[in-house]
């Protein structure tokens, strides 16, 4: 008898369940980080290391999880982070993940490197009542025309924002992938971009996006654009000044530059620099309701969750993802109540030990 | 041959003895903490991490453990913390625990969720010569009348104070309990409150106590009321201003909000804010005589010990609890002598490395 | 084939060799510390944790290990710490240890609780050319007359100083000893004090030494008296003011008060307070030549080494102790050379990273 | 089937491959550090412990690895550190290592204690197009004439600089070597110095170099001289003032003085003191491209890599060394790109979290 999905009582529980279902190739791809995986581990440890100083006896009669972001109200502050090739995790791939997110009121960010046409995902979920944000993630393409085309397609399909990933001009040192000789299996490919348009190492220098190329994209974007992968406060301010609609503090889940700052440590500095100019989101290592609470306390409006939901997808498809999101919402509501907060907006940095 | 109770030479020794006697259900309930049990562990590590700077050659001729608290003198500063359903640990349950405490001069705090009628416990011990404090712990009930009735019964039975727990408007993420599917066994129930009066998650919002509801309780309480579960200095000051007779710095033994501040770290801040306005107690992770000494040094008048005495109860009933309390008193007296203190009152923060 | 003494190439190597030769009773006695043995471990870790900032190209032509202390010149700054009942470790007991120390130019401090008459040890070594200091350790006795008599005997036998241990008015929580039910084997006893004169717990309060009783001892002592077991700077200053000839910063090898300050952390504070008023020594956790160098850098004139030499004694009697002392001298000379110092006097706190 | 060289995807991978090929004697010699190997480990941990704060969207169109040093331009900032007796690692010894370095554009520093004539190494590589620096390492010899002769030979053979090691007036406590009874096997010897000229412990005092002897060497050196083994800022300034052409911050790979400062911690202090007066290099614990980046950020112009390239040599001779250097260059280029730097010169301390 293999692992039992019913044993998943928190997000971390999906990892061994997924390991049992994934082959070494897919496992290396999803579980690995760059180099010695120091940042991968530290992303988690950084949340664990923050100490809460709860308040008692505050009114909780109307406690709830709703947030406002980019001019709309959403059921809660959770989104599924963009991750490539979700069909590697489960045959239903992006469809299952997006449906589960919509059913749970969570946002879904489709990857440029999705194995499903962006229009096919959008049509499944865009009219779902009570769903969360529907966004499209974009790697800047060497071909500016292609970038523009992808943004137009996303807007036409019903996506509400573009997430532009700026922290990966090259791949990181993915030692785990190299150790297994990772390859995409037959039948899985990035269907939204033309064959050959994917970044190839030999011309990464020419393809690397710059502030100038991003400014041009922002000027012509049909949708609000959030920049993902910003850790330095000065870069955050520059992005906001150029018209970014929001920022995602991220180190690519520890997959690109090992030993870079954990996102929990970068977030408050970026928040202090931005002074609320644009909404901030964060990803990396979030597994617990208390992690989400801490992200809110440090200045985030919402958070993205990556690997653990991917593991949940691998473990049990859409049901797994839905269960994972349900568990995290439950934990977040408990964390709010136990710190004396009746909503995400009531959370402030004072809840953290100085 | 099973574990031998005679091998218990310190409080930690009772844990493996208890594990051998408890089923998985009870073990999960008593041993577990919230979430990843970070606060559960840190409660211990925080005491371990404090360094003593002892003095030598001070007079010890009259060294002893007695303290003053709430207007009376007690044999020593140890109380058994309130813990629910002690019959899960040993058939003699709260009776055995309360008797052992009385015999050893330790205080006993009966839980609202005791499996024994509060009057039955009180009658066993209240006239015991040399006993410690006898207090009744209360979860604020949604029904204010029920709360008042419980306080009246406690006063009538001979309890000397009410301990009002304010840090648990909801249960925490008790993953261990969920993993075993924890249930109260037949025959164990909270006999002091009407069936159905126990907090149920679906109406926790309405039942959650507030400063207003607590103020009203304090105004009508027939006994001194100590608030248990306060970590923030501002909350401590507000409680004192509203008439609380004392405060117990506690994080519910790490069972509600994971990654909240360890009590050893919260205590000095609360003590500094209160400036002695009301007596302070503390629980969480205390296992050694040096831990008690450190609590006194940081501003506590007395300490509550929970899990290890529960484990002693599981290991050997009243004898176990008595042995545990004896060992801890012996260690405390040694710790006083080895730091040059002849009484708890002689302990000051100067004994701790700055 | 058992462990091979020839494998000892550093002081730590003697521990497994000793373990193989000692029974559980003796092992518990010699290896154990108080409580959870946190201070026992931290004594070591504290030396390990100090970082050296070496200098290069300084003149080493006349590099050597000699020191001045209490008005005499000695071959090097190493002494064997006082330890009771050395016959538990090896049949030759104190005789073997003292001879090995003399042969290696190291000091020897005989314990009050030695199993050999103090005169018998002195006569063996006092005329040895090139030996180190010969001191007698004293636990203050409840009977002041007995204390005076012991000091007179020590002076008459040729001891050059008294080491008065002030940090143990009671034994610590020696859990390891209690776990094995430690008892002195037949034939081993404290022959220098009358049967029944040993401190017994039931009257420790009356027997506990005070500043007043120590002052009286200092006034009548026939030899210079060093106080052993001082950690607090104020106690150190008081001892110097009352006429102590020197101080030994010690926490009794982690055997009395667990979680008290490591000696490497206490030493610089005491040195700063004393400003050179009297010579300072230190023990606790010293295993390496670099540890000795660090002690000198923090203000010590000499160091005492306890357990590892006891383990060497257990492993191979006098030869073991001599080898241990030889290894430590070799390491110390290397450490001096590699930091640019040509003598212990050339070592200063500047060698340590600030 | 033994370990497979093809499994080496980062520098650390060579270590198990080398272990499988080396006997205990050679393994102890190459892998060991001084004492408890605390500095050996900390050299690594210190780089791991530095956190990068990357910048995004900076121009990378002309990203490359070239540096300027001592008046010339080199392909990248990597050199192979001087290590004795490379024939112990592989039959091709220094020849293989030097050739691999030249082929990869890396510098090579030949050890005084090489098993190959310095002229034989030089002739192999000095005319290699695209090679890195070719330097000769020197232990100051007791015989000043011999030192001068070696420098003249090195200059005549085409070496471009002398690396004078100043941190080893004596060997360290090489416990691993002593444990295996390390000896040079037949056929391996230091062929560049006369038999008997190697430092012998019994006269190390007389042979120990001083500032005066070094000054005299610098005055007569036919080549630029870099001092290797400097950790203290004052020593660094003195060396620069006396005419050293550069400095190598090093603790001899943790092989001499255990618990001395890690080089990553010493480097910025030395850089701050020198203010760019002479080029700085560093070695010790560098395994990753991000380590090299951090060294550049802290003020180094180039870095030396020792043990891991020796392990690569042991694993697969010249091919192993070349692969190791290739992997490290690849990682360094990725690290530059991912932090927004298009060359080593663009790296500044601002990339490190303050």
CATH class division of chain A: Alpha Beta
Order of helices and strands of chain A: HHHEEEHEHEHEHHHEHEHEHEH
| CATH homology superfamily name of chain A | Aldolase class I
Describe the strand arrangement of the main beta sheet of chain A, using strand numbers: 3-4-5-6-7-8-9-10
Shape of chain A: globular
Largest interface: A-D, 38 and 31 residues
Q: What share of the residues of chain A does DSSP label as strand, in percent?
A: 5-15%
- Which topology of chain A does CATH recognise? TIM Barrel
Overall number of structural domains of chain A: 1
Radius of gyration of chain A: 19 Å
Count of beta strands of chain A: 10
Give the uncertain stretches of chain A in residue-range form: none
Summarize the structure.
Four copies of one chain form a homotetramer. Chain A is built from 13 helices and ten strands.
Report on this model:
Four copies of one chain form a homotetramer. Chain A is built from 13 helices and ten strands. The first copy, chain A, has helices at 14-21, 24-31, 38-48, 93-103, 118-125, 144-157, 175-180, 204-207, 211-220, 233-241, 263-274, 289-297, 307-338, and strands at 67-69, 72-74, 78-80, 107-110, 134-138, 161-165, 225-230, 246-249, 280-283, 302-305. In chain A, helix 1 packs antiparallel against helix 13 (307-338), helix 5 packs parallel to helix 6 and helix 10 (233-241) packs across helix 11 (263-274). The model of chain A has no long low-confidence stretch (mean pLDDT 95).
């Amino acid at each position: 008898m293999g692992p039992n999905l019913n044993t998943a009582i928190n997000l971390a529980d999906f990892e061994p369940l997924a390991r049992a279902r994934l082959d070494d190739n897919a496992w290396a791809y999803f579980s690995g980080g760059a180099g010695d995986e120091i940042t991968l581990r530290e992303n988690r440890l950084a949340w664990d290391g923050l100490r809460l100083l709860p308040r008692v006896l505050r009114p909780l009669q109307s406690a709830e999880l709703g947030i406002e972001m980019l001019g709309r109200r959403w059921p809660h502050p959770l989104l599924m982070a963009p991750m490539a090739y979700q069909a590697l995790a489960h045959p239903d791939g992006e469809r299952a993940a997006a449906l589960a997110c919509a059913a749970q009121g969570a946002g879904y960010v489709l990857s440029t490197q999705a194995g499903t046409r962006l229009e096919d995902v959008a049509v499944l979920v865009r009219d779902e009542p009570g769903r969360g944000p529907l966004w499209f993630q974009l790697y800047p393409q060497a071909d500016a025309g292609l970038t523009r085309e992808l943004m137009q397609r996303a807007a036409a399909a019903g996506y509400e924002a573009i997430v532009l990933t700026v922290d990966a001009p090259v791949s990181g040192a993915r030692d785990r992938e190299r150790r297994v000789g990772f390859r995409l299996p037959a039948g899985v490919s990035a269907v939204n971009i033309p064959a050959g348009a994917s970044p190839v190492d030999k011309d990464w220098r020419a393809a690397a996006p710059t502030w100038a190329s991003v400014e041009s994209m922002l000027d012509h974007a049909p949708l609000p654009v959030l920049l993902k992968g910003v850790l330095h406060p000065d870069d955050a301010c520059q992005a906001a000044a150029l018209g970014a609609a929001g920022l995602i503090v991220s180190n690519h889940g520890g997959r690109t530059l090992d030993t870079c700052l954990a996102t929990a440590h970068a977030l408050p500095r970026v928040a202090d620099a931005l002074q609320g100019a644009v909404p901030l989101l964060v990803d990396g290592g979030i597994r617990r309701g208390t992690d989400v609470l801490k992200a809110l306390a440090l200045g985030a409006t919402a958070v993205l969750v990556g690997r653990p939901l991917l593991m949940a997808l691998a473990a049990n498809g859409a049901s797994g993802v839905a269960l994972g999101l349900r568990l995290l919402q439950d934990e977040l509501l408990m964390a709010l109540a136990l710190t004396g907060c009746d909503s995400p907006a009531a959370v402030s940095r004072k809840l953290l030990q100085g």
